[in-house]
């Protein structure tokens, strides 16, 4: 992935929590991410994860991001907030945790929430 210093929603950028790298035995690595998108003309804040099959498995989030170059799937969304309505998966505790991030994120658009690093994109530099 390519790290950029300026946010542009058209670049489909992600901010990631570098402390959340997890891996499976099938060579899949995951990293928690947040992002903004437009849905039906409305800006929404999303939280979920980025994933990639990497063999060998990455040792840290920096290695994961450096090697993650296939953006066909984008991020897997777990929760989305548009300022009025919420869509999400998981337990009620998960939903409350996600809303605690998404509400202030959308209210302070286009800031990066505390604990996240960004902006990363799959799109080549212009």
Look at the structure and give the mean pLDDT. 95
Largest sheet: 8 strands, antiparallel
Helical proportion? 10-25%
Which geometry do the CA atoms define? globular
Number of strands: 8
From the N-terminal CA to the C-terminal CA, the straight-line distance is: 14 Å
Instruction: Compute the number of structural domains.
Output: 1
Instruction: Point out poorly predicted stretches.
Output: none
Strand content: 35-45%
| Structural class based on helices, strands and sheet pairing | alpha+beta
Give the number of helices: 2
Q: Output the helix-strand order.
A: EEEEEHEEHE
Radius of gyration, whole Å: 14 Å
Write the layout of secondary structure elements.
Elements: E1 2-3, E2 14-16, E3 22-23, E4 28-39, E5 42-53, H1 61-67, E6 76-81, E7 86-88, H2 92-107, E8 117-121
Antiparallel strand pairs: 1-8, 2-4, 2-8, 3-4, 4-5, 5-6, 6-7
Structure, explained:
- The protein has 126 residues and is of the alpha+beta class.
- It has one domain.
- Helix content is 18%, strand content 36%.
- It is built from two helices and eight strands, in the order βββββαββαβ.
- The protein has helices spanning 61-67, 92-107; strands at 2-3, 14-16, 22-23, 28-39, 42-53, 76-81, 86-88, 117-121.
- Strands 1, 2, 3, 4, 5, 6, 7 and 8 form an eight-stranded antiparallel sheet that branches.
- A hairpin with a 2-residue loop joins strand 4 (28-39) and strand 5 (42-53).
- It is globular, with a radius of gyration of 14 Å.
- The two termini are 14 Å apart.
